[in-house]
Each structure stands twice: as structure tokens, then as C-alpha cells.
Amino acid sequence: MAKKILFVCLGNICRSPAAEGIFNQKIKDKDVENLFVVDSAGTGGWHVGNLADRRMREAALSRGIELTSRSRQIEDKDLYEFDHILVMDKDNLNAVKSLIKDDIHPVHSKIKLILSYSKKSQLDEVPDPYYGGQNGFEKVLDLLDDAIEELLETIID
Ligand code: 4NP
Fold first, then answer.
1. Measured distance CA(12)–CA(43) in Å, rounded
2. pTM of this prediction?
3. Ligand 1: which of 8, 10, 12 to mutate, most ligand atoms within 8 Å of CB?
4. How far apart (Å, rounded) are the C-alpha atoms in residues 134 and 69?
5. What are phi and psi of 6, to 5 degrees?
6. Which of 6, 1, 12 is CA-nearest to residue 107?
7. How far is the CA of 25 from the centre of ligand 1 (A)?
8. Exposed e or buried b per residue across 53-68, where buried means at least 16 C-beta atoms within 10 angstroms of its C-beta
């Protein structure tokens, strides 16, 4: 059975679509695409239906990664669908965990900060690049590239 992976940030137009794109690129390169179902979502709904932010799409494309996903808001049922939910920061973590209301049907998905997988970075949160300059987008891609490499090492059987 394919493992289902969901990346989550606030708007689903910068960090989590980038994580989804990097993950997809890596599983393609490793020829293990059939082992995974990959998606991303935002805890907020302001950008639903939109492509990723142009600045993030350009930064990713310059690394050979095309971001094609459209923003959607996370739903309660995602917590039952996905095996791993990787969030970008602690606000996202709290927002996702606050969706767990049902004591009768326990949630089995592993909900973790994506940078908990990083060996290189001292940071525990992926900084929100939305109101900053282009450097912020490059930084996000660097952090995600490293953490996702380690994530894959951990979850590929
Ligand atoms: P993201 O970045 O959570 O990485 O997609 C943001 C995108 C939009 C907003 C905030 C963060 N916003 O306030 O609209």
C-alpha cells in the first residue's frame, strides 16, 4: 500500500507546495513514485484554488522543480487519510492538532514538524517567506531539500 504524505503550511502557496514539489522530484529520481501519494494543504483558506506564489514557483523552477499544485485548505478527514502530516511551523502544528476532536475514532497519522527530520539545520521551523525577499524563498528550498532527503531515508521501507 502506498504511503500517504501531506505537507501543511499556512497559505499552501509557498512552503508546503514547495515541499510537495521537492518530495515528488526526489521520489521520481529514486524511482519510488509508486510507493507514495503526496499532497499539500494550508491551515488557512485565503488562497484556495491558486497556484503557488510566483516567487516560489520561480525559485523552485530554477532548481528544476515545477510547482503545479493548487491551494486547498486542510480538512478534518485529512487526519484520517494521510499516514504522515508534515507541518512547517508550530502554529501549523497547533492548527492541525486542533482539528482532532473525535475521541471515538483515534487519529493514527504521524503529525510532525518537517525540520524534526533535518540533521543539518538548527532551526525547528521553516520560516514563512511570504512578506520577505527572494532570499527567504531560497532558504525555504534549502531547508526543505535537506529535511525531505532525511524524511525519505526514514520512511522508505
Ligand atoms: P505559506 O506562506 O504558509 O508558506 O503558503 C504564506 C502565504 C500567504 C500568507 C501567509 C503565509 N498570507 O498571509 O496570505
1. 8
2. 0.97
3. 10
4. 21
5. -120, 125
6. 6
7. 23
8. bebbbebbeeeebebe
Nearest residue (by CA) to ligand 1, atom 13, is: 11
Nearest atom in ligand 1 to 126's CA = 4
- One digit per residue, the tens of pLDDT, for the chain of length 157 reads 899 999 999 999 999 999 999 999 999 999 999 999 999 999 999 999 999 999 999 999 999 999 999 999 999 999 999 999 999 999 999 999 999 986 777 888 999 999 999 999 999 999 999 999 999 999 999 999 999 999 999 998 6
Q: Which of 19, 141, 140 is nearest to 84 (CA)?
A: 19
**Residue appearing with cell numbers 527530520:** 117
Which atom of ligand 1 approaches the CA of 13 most closely?
5
Could you tell me which CATH number the domain at 3-155 has?
3.40.50.2300
**What's the rounded Cα separation, in Å, for the pair 41 and 29?**
24
Which atom of ligand 1 is closest in space to residue 10's alpha carbon? 3
Active site residues: 9, 15, 128
Domain ranges of the chain: 3-155
**CB neighbours of residue 112 within 10 Å:** 14
How far apart (Å, rounded) are the C-alpha atoms in residues 38 and 35? 10
